[in-house]
Write a structure and sequence with these properties.
The chain has about 260 residues and is α/β, with parallel strands linked by helices. It is built from 4 helices and 28 strands.
Length: about 260
């Protein structure tokens, strides 16, 4: 544990004594790095503007750039944020941009996520917990990614897209509309094709609840001509579990439309 002598740490930074900063890293500006977090080599955290808050036991591999300027012309050096939780892995060359004033003013990453090489999260993204994102996936600004999703490599997500919990998205998909929780999606542009039954079962959901979710998903993506009609059928014909309530709320809040 400690800071390698070749690394440069800002006087404004607050690095926990049990963090580990490897060679040739740059920690610039208002940065907080928590206990047990490790920077391999050639990692850049923060910049002269903005605030980066990093929790405990994260691992940043070589070439990661966290808290860089938003790729947005509206940004004028405001003290917007990146907030990162605990237990995440950021593999080689992952990039995460600061938030913007026209968004949430912060980009938020939760806990226990694995982001493989060359993944990018644009400004104002909100990311949940326990996600697995394969190589070279690109998330534009304002994307919301739920928890416990699995995303194949080389996927692209349009700005303001929302992806619900426990989804599976096949590799090389282009996502330009909202993806319901508990679904499997793929394609260019991606469409929801089925219920993610295997993922739900592996996550410990009882079989009768899996079948209840499956019925609701079918109503929303196959068994109705409009979102409102699908929601009505779900309310009438599915047990009102917490998963069903979340599914309905997600569908009702969709502004981009559903990927169907």
């Amino acid at each position: 544990m400690g800071i390698h002598p070749t690394s440069v740490i800002s006087k404004e930074a607050n690095v926990h004594p049990e963090a580990d900063i490897g060679p040739f890293c740059l920690v610039e500006g208002k940065v907080r790095i928590g206990k047990g977090t490790k920077l391999d080599s050639h990692v850049r955290i923060g910049n002269e503007h903005g605030i980066v808050e990093i929790g405990e036991h994260n691992h940043f591999f070589a070439g990661s750039v966290i808290g860089g300027y938003p790729q947005d012309r509206s940004y004028k050096g405001e003290d917007t944020k990146v907030i990162i939780g605990n237990g995440n892995q950021f593999r080689e060359c992952v990039t995460v941009s600061l938030g913007t004033l026209k968004g949430h003013s912060e980009t938020v990453i939760g806990n226990d996520n694995l982001f493989m090489a060359y993944v990018h999260f644009g400004h104002d993204c909100i990311v949940g917990n326990g996600n697995f994102v394969a190589n070279s996936c690109q998330f534009a600004g304002h994307v919301e990614l739920g928890s416990k999703t699995t995303i194949g490599g080389v996927c692209a997500f349009n700005q303001f897209v929302r992806v619900g919990d426990s989804c599976f998205i096949g590799g090389y998909s282009s996502v330009n509309k909202d993806v319901l929780p508990y679904t499997i999606s793929a394609g260019n542009h991606a469409v929801m094709r089925a219920t993610n039954k295997v993922g739900l079962e592996r996550g410990g959901m009882p079989m009768d609840d899996v079948e209840n979710v499956h019925r609701a998903v079918r109503f929303l993506i196959r068994g109705s001509s409009t979102i409102a009609e699908g929601i009505h059928r779900v309310r009438e014909e599915c047990r009102p579990t917490k998963e069903i309530k979340y599914l309905i709320e997600f569908a009702e809040k969709s502004k981009r439309g559903l990927a169907k």
